[in-house]
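Researcher: Good morning. I'm working through a list of sequences from a screen, and I'd like to move beyond sequence-only analysis. For each chain I'm collecting a predicted structure so we can compare shapes side by side. This is the next one on the list. No need for commentary yet; just the structure.
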Amino acid sequence: MSRNQTNYSGLGKLPPQSIELEEAVLGAIMEMDVISTVIDMLRPEMFYKTNHQIIYSVMLSLAKQNEPIDELTVIATLRASGELESVGGMFYVTELTRRVASAANIEFNARIIVQKFLAREVIRISTEAIQTAYEDTTDVLELVEQVEKNIYDLSSHKNSKKQSKISDVVDECIEILSTPIKNGLTGIPTGLTNLDKLTNGWQDTDLIIIAARPAMGKTAFVLHCAKYPAIKLNKPVLLFSLEMSEVQLGNRMIADEAGICLDDIQKRNLSPYDKEKVISLTRNLKKSPLIIDDTPALNILEFRAKCRRAKQQHDIKLIIIDYLQLMVGDAGNRNGNREQEIGSISRMLKAVAKELKVPVIALSQLSRKVEERANKMPMLSDIRESGSIEQDADMVIFLHRPEYYGITEFEGKSVVGKLSAIIAKHRNGVCDTAQLDLNAAYMRLTDWEIDFEPTELKGESF
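Model: Good morning. Structure tokens for this chain:
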């Protein structure tokens, strides 16, 4: 970043700053070589005075070269770069070391410098937004997007976490182990016993990718994952639907809850009895804390802001996105290729999961390479448009229907309507397959009691 002083003028007031603390921090670094205490917290542009920015940049340069940092090395480096006089000369640099009261307060002082910088940036962002908004040629939607991006970039400065002693970590683990668990699961259950036994429920801070080719039952699966905790456990769930409208999703959930064929609902071909069933059997669905957002082409920064608001207002426990490839990155990343954009989106999804301490489930498409493969079985490399998705994910589950590939029987028993949930990656558990029943006409998923391995299915290879 440029060392030129940022313009914070416009309100006729002196911007937030603390020259004395800036001098004290710089002096303490030179006097006691304690830059390691603040190096992960302070950046040059956070100092209000331009000469302080230059001096701190020199200190960072010396630290990277493993050189000692004192007034002599700082002065020598400034002289070599021709910047000594511009910062106030030898006298000014030497005087900084006399501003130090105690190195014990350097971290506290540095945090105040950061806070003053953040306050100045809020003023700058707000002022620029106001000025731009007054211009007739301004695209308001682009302006809002840019402001969101600026605020997000700014908020990242306050998310640094202090290091923890192993004793504190162990104490926290013991406390968690002593906490009773419900239903034998530590995470949010799906109500599908075969799957829950493998996942132990969806875990807080995890990013779970559900990937499949078209017609594999992704929508039925994700709606089940959304409805069960919301209806049965009264846990608030936030569902982003980028592919279908909220009414289309509602119809599918009603089909499942009321036991009415989805095709009849879409054609409004319901008898008076069916209509009574809909009213009666969807009462629990209406009362559930399930929130649907069907914003198309959702921007990743808008997504993050909406998740934060939902966490504050509803204390959401689970976030679901249908589906990842329909999201768009922030304006700053759109000049790159699509793979880089998807990579930045998947990293943001993981960051949101960690920040809000909730599981984030994202549906993803698989490439056509699955169809080209002799056995038709998906692989991690089949996830479309980004290899980083599989790296960012804590769990990757492939949905696979043998029936779709012409296999109707296994050892004399029908596999029509059977769905395999194949856990291909599990950072904190086992990789295995959960067998499920899918009734596509009613958008209903249940457990399947018959165990089988997809690769051992007889009939046409898939």
